[in-house]
Design a protein that fits this description.
This protein is an alpha+beta fold. It has 3 helices and 8 strands. It has helices spanning about 1-60, 85-95, 105-120; strands spanning about 65-70, 70-75, 100, 130-135, 145, 170-175, 185, 195-200.
Length: about 200
């Protein structure tokens, strides 16, 4: 009888310990979930703060609808209110806004622009758009120049590089997983979206 009573006590103590262990696990899981939610909320607030600062900075330097990046104002024809256009038509739109098609000299500027259009296009259910930039080889086949006359030295062309193709005289950016294979030679009459740029208000 004494042995049976002792076994019962031990079993009860074991069951109690198991219950406390399980309760501790549940409590730990709740605290981890709460910490994760707090982290998400903090990250969200940080993101909103950054977006607000960017918007505030953009409003100070750029016209409404333009994005301030790398000390330059850019306009991305994301809105479906704008129909895709040929390279020349897209350029005329930019000129009408006191700007021109984007000239992308630096790696930093290229990466910032490619990240933005890739995020926008690949996050959409529709077929990704290409975007005209201010680069072409109209005057001399195979000699690519920016709109300010500067010759292209470093590019991020899709596929085999800047081949000599008679009817592909204008350049566009396409959203891709690799930002270093995002430019494409296209006939200037193709219908695409576009990217404008202009100097900031303080610089202009």
């Amino acid at each position: 009888m004494d042995i049976s009573a002792e076994v019962a006590k031990l079993q009860a103590a074991y069951d109690t310990a198991i219950w406390h262990r399980d309760e501790a696990k549940k409590q730990l899981a709740r605290e981890i979930r709460e910490q994760q939610i707090t982290k998400w909320e903090l990250d969200h607030q940080k993101s909103r703060s950054k977006d607000y600062l960017k918007l505030k900075e953009g409003c100070r330097h750029c016209l409404p609808g333009w994005t301030f990046m790398n000390s330059v104002c850019f306009y991305f024809a994301f809105s479906d209110a704008f129909s895709p256009r040929s390279w020349q038509e897209a350029r005329q739109f930019c000129i009408n806004q006191a700007g021109d098609l984007a000239v992308i000299y630096s790696r930093e500027k290229h990466l910032a622009i490619s990240k933005l259009i890739t995020k926008h296009e690949l996050g959409s259910p529709r077929t990704p758009n290409g975007y005209w930039i201010g680069l072409r080889d109209i005057k001399e086949e195979g000699i690519w120049k920016w709109l300010d006359g500067t010759r292209l030295t470093t590019g991020y062309c899709i596929g085999e590089g800047w081949r000599r193709i008679d009817d592909r005289d204008c350049a566009a950016m396409y959203p891709r997983s690799s930002p270093f294979e995002i430019w494409y030679q296209a006939p200037c009459h193709h219908i695409l979206k576009w990217i404008c740029q202009m100097t900031t208000r303080s610089a202009g």
